[in-house]
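FORM 7B: Structural annotation worksheet

SECTION A. Query
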Amino acid sequence: MPLPNLGADGQTGDVHPLIDVPALVRLLRNEPPPILLDVRWHLSGPPGIDSYRRGHLPGAVFVDLDRDVAGPPGRAGRHPLPAPADFETAMRRAGVSADRLVVVYDDADSTAAARLWWSLRYFGHERARVLDGGYRAWTEAGRPVTAEEPAVKPGDFIAQGGRLPLLDAEGAGALAKSGVLLDARAAERYRGETEPVDPVAGHIPGAVNAPTLGNVGVDGRFLPSELLRERFAKLGATDAADVGVYCGSGVTAAHEILALTVAGVPAALYVGSWSNWVADPTNPVATGESGPHAEKL
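SECTION B. Predicted structure
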């Protein structure tokens, strides 16, 4: 599948993938305002819905990453793609329509928000953006929050998959040899020194480590596009290369896809990621550093 046509500023079409708080405040004065989706999620808890109920952006609807943005875990991975009909139902329930801008956010670093952003784009929503800095940026700007859950008018979004490029295990293994396959996990997991979630430690042979932590500053906001381009270029990932990304289960890898998009570098997502790769015992596993572009942290 052709990769999205990105400009140097990371725009796909006429919608930049990120939005800051002042710009969102201005858009919320419009009629109709953007649809706000709260997708706060934590790998080891507490549940994101608890954070949402304590306080969220006014008008925001909670979306559960595990239930609404991923299919059931299994050999396909811990967060495989949901069935199109299931994603469509979840998004309609949240009020998503094709003609309304959707802004998604999480706590701060956009890890979970990026997976929802990517999923909306993959299933055909052309106008999705991520609130840079998330809930924390909103509250630090002195903007109001509420515990009141909005009444939602069901949307009319139609999910049609295949709008962004995907990799399966075979494709990821091949790309690690012929192009650039980025591993978005922490360096110690990539090197195989520890593996807190999946049954096997290590990485796909030939993959290059690019932890998502390097995409954002201490405030959780994305680095400027020129710094992201420089970072990825050092790893061999440019718009002249075939680039793919994986992580543990396809969540932080979507964050890397978002950063690459901001940098103007098209890339494919291996949704099944490491949790799918190690489900097949015949797939090879590497440990330690890999390749001339391995990132030094």
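SECTION C. Observations
The first strand starts at residue 18 and ends at 19. Confidence is low (pLDDT under 50) at residues 1-13, 292-297.

SECTION D. Sign-off
Analyst initials: ____
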